[in-house]
Amino acid sequence: MLDNIQSNEILERLPAHLQQYIKPQNYDEYTPINQAVWRYVMRKNVDYLSKVAHESYLEGLKKTGISIDSIPNMYGMNRILEEIGWAAVAVDGFIPPAAFMEFQAYNVLVIASDIRQLEHIEYTPAPDIIHEGAGHAPIIANPEYAEYLRRFGEIGCKAISSSHDYEVYEAIRELSILKEAEDTPQEKIKEVEKRVDELQNAEVKPSEMAQIRNLHWWTVEYGLIGSLEEPKIYGAGLLSSIGESKSCMTDAVKKYPYTIEAAKKEFDITKPQPQLFVTPDFAHLSLVLEEFANKMALRRGGLEGIQKLIDSRNLGTVEFSTGIQVSGNFSRVIEHEGKPVYIQTKGETALSNREKELVGHGVSTHPEGFGSPIGSLKGINLAIEDMSPRDLRAYDIYEGEKVSLEFEGGVKVEGEIITGTRNLQGKVILISFSDCTVTYNDEVLFKPEWGRYDMAVGKEIISAFAGPADHESFDLITHTPSTTTIKSKKTLEREELESLYESVRNIRNGENTKFSLNAAFDIVRKHHPKDWLLSVEIYELAVENDPKLASEVKAWLEEIKKQRPEVSHLIDDGIEMTETKMVTP
């Protein structure tokens, strides 16, 4: 897939499991109406946001090469983004939250390359290139914010999710696609809305991923910065919504100081937000992120962390105090006095150290699972990992010796030591046995006939996180979305309207066209009376060159407002932008 993208050394670092989400932008598929929608939103945004957005926004538009007049081409964006240490890739709508955040950890901006319909010009529940390109991209030109985004991705992709999270993700993805698609039956939308509502209101304990996703929403997507009384916009969802960027500044939307409590506040992606959070500055965002990270299993480990992985029913990793990492689907933990004393995975498992798979300990070696005791030996104050070579010899923990190791908590390992593996600091991190039996009280956990027994060494679990330690250990190229973005239908009427939009665009660009402005206006008025945006574009050009035509178009726009009151404010904004431009020196 990377062969189809403008070369950027950042993209070349992306692992295969992230590359699977990338799709070609297919720039030629953007229609003249798509281009007009982009242009209207960007003209409106730049005009309005210059007053209410964080100062980084307008500066970032210039740095990231985003044009007001044309949908950005990913090739051009990557050439420019490379200068600020970032890159961009196109995807199809929503991708799983963990993957989205991991892209950020690699300094890669994920851009949903589709664009909203004209009917949803103010707001779309589906991610689109206006939201991603005009919302996210400009702000990352601010170095402090860009580092927050990268760090958020680095921490967020390790957050442990739940099976419930995945159900919510799939339902929201389907709803956003249906709402953005043309002619979706209302009963179908209501059916999926009901499912989303039931899932979001289900009595379940929020996972780490659910909570950090909330933090992402209330900052990266819908964040305000400054004071509660006079905040500025920096969240991409607000920057890309000409409706919410205005409404969010009114008293109807409540403003709260941004704290870690925002992690508990759920959101509805399909509706405008009733409240927002205000951070005093970008540095404060990182403080709250670190505060949340300190509560994650990533940094706390322990029994709770292992239990989170078991409950997630997804691939995860635990790290022992020696640094050895066990990656797999965790199925069991034995506890003693509130501490884990034995862990068990089922199915393919891999062992790593410092995120690199240990030679000879991939999934082919541990295809059916892995189990190991945790903690110190009973009656011995010195943990195995802290023993010197002399200590190890004294306790017969030595190659060729038959030993019986009884751990605090009741797990016993009996067998002949084959060899040990040490880390760079010289600590023993793994001991392999032959003819080995592992028991817990009267329960047999491992039998000699099962072959070699590998025991991880560590007195405690210091970390537990989602995903494998080494992504090369597992086949992660498995993404098959249950839904895909629905494209607009092609009709003769639509094709004629597209042709008119293209002609007006060509006139603006000084190119030859088969239609004059007068002819284009005459056809759109007679054959496409519900369309308003093309008439706004014709008015913009006519004001400068043909006052008589401009007067006719403006009168026609007033008629459309009567027939379609729901778009009257959009027409007014279009007229105002043109007339303000004419009087501005």
TrEMBL record:
It comes from Christiangramia aestuarii. This is Aromatic amino acid hydroxylase. Fe cation binds at H131, H136, E221. CDD domains: arom_aa_hydroxylase. SUPFAM superfamilies: Aromatic aminoacid monoxygenases, catalytic and oligomerization domains. Transmembrane segments: none annotated. Pfam families: Biopterin_H. The keyword Metal-binding applies. The keyword rRNA-binding does not apply. PROSITE patterns: BH4_AAA_HYDROXYL_2. Belongs to the biopterin-dependent aromatic amino acid hydroxylase family. NCBIfam families: PRK14056.1 (NF010657). InterPro entries: ArAA_hydroxylase (IPR001273), ArAA_hydroxylase_sf (IPR036951), Aro-AA_hydroxylase_C_sf (IPR036329), Aromatic-AA_hydroxylase_C (IPR019774). Keywords: Iron, Metal-binding, Monooxygenase, Oxidoreductase. Its cofactor is Fe(2+). Residues 1-342 form the Biopterin-dependent aromatic amino acid hydroxylase family profile domain. GO terms for biological process: aromatic amino acid metabolic process. GO terms for molecular function: iron ion binding; oxidoreductase activity, acting on paired donors, with incorporation or reduction of molecular oxygen, reduced pteridine as one donor, and incorporation of one atom of oxygen.
